[in-house]
Each structure stands twice: as structure tokens, then as C-alpha cells.
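hey
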């Protein structure tokens, strides 16, 4: 199970893990990068092989550029997905942690870690798996929700679902902030 680096996460306001799982998180990007490089190599070979006829390879160039765009967009989405968003709290952090734990258990999340510093929970729904990290720091909590699809996969796009989850958590602890 993941182990959060509490101090580094608070300093950077981004999730920092003691043992980041690089192949799972970045595997999609490496595959897309490899595909774009292969498509450019294929285009170059075909361009010179057929007498520099550029019109024949229009779709190949479009697909290579589309792959590069997806790579750039995915990297940006991954950066945003690691960000911690702070919310002020009225009650003491221990009380807030108990409220959040109660809400997450009601929503069928499994709590993997819960201490004075942070809470880590995951759900095991069939298609919309997610993990939630809540970091407690005096009168502010920092929340991060990430998608987890497939058996051990990761997808940086949430299509607004993560914001809805955070909004529900906040409305349970501070009804005036939601």
C-alpha cells in the first residue's frame, strides 16, 4: 500500500509518495510517446520512398500530431491530478477526520490509512474506482481525489467526477463551504 510523504506533500502542495509507482502512473505516456516516434519514423521512410509525395501521408502526419497533443494534454492532466486543494475547517482536525471517515464508510470506501496527519481511502466500484487522500494541517485540510481504472491502471482524466466527490466531502464537514 502507498505511503505518503506528509512533510514533502505539505511543502509542495502536491502528493508526494515515498514509493511512487512510476510504471503504472506513466506507462500510458511512454506508450504514446513510442507510438508517436514510430509514426514519425514511418512517415519519414514513406516520404522518401515515394518520391517526396507529401499528400499521400496527410493522415499519418495528422495521427502523429494527435498523439503528441494527447501526450502533452495527459502530462498536464497528471500535474493537475497530483495537486492538493486546501479547505478551511471549523472543527478540530480529529473531529473532521472522524466525520470524513464516517462519510467515506457510508459511501463504501475502504480506509487504508488514518492517522493524525492524513487519511487514505479507496473504493472498489466496478468502473469508477477512485482514491482519496485527505491531509490534516491545523485549520486547513488538503484533499486530493484520483481515478483508478482497471485492475491496477490509472487515468488522469475525471470529467468532473473528482470535483463532485470533493464537494460532497466538504459539504459533510463544512456545509457553508460547498
Amino acid at each position: 500500500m502507498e505511503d505518503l510523504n506528509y512533510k514533502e506533500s505539505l511543502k509542495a502542495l502536491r502528493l508526494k509518495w515515498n514509493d511512487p509507482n512510476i510504471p503504472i502512473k506513466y506507462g500510458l505516456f511512454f506508450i504514446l510517446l513510442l507510438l508517436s516516434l514510430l509514426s514519425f519514423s514511418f512517415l519519414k521512410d514513406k516520404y522518401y520512398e515515394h518520391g517526396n509525395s507529401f499528400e499521400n501521408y496527410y493522415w499519418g502526419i495528422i495521427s502523429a500530431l494527435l498523439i503528441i497533443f494527447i501526450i502533452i494534454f495527459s502530462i498536464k492532466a497528471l500535474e493537475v491530478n497530483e495537486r492538493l486543494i486546501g479547505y478551511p475547517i471549523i472543527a478540530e482536525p480529529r473531529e473532521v477526520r472522524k466525520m470524513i471517515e464516517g462519510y467515506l464508510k457510508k459511501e463504501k470506501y475502504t480506509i487504508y490509512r488514518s492517522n493524525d496527519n492524513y487519511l487514505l481511502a479507496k473504493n472498489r466500484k466496478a468502473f469508477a474506482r477512485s482514491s482519496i487522500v485527505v491531509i490534516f494541517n491545523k485549520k486547513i485540510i488538503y484533499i486530493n481525489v484520483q481515478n483508478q481504472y482497471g485492475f491496477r491502471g490509472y487515468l488522469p482524466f475525471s470529467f468532473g467526477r473528482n470535483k463532485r466527490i470533493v464537494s460532497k466531502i466538504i459539504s459533510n464537514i463544512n456545509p457553508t463551504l460547498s
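The chain has a mean pLDDT of 78. The radius of gyration is 21 Å.
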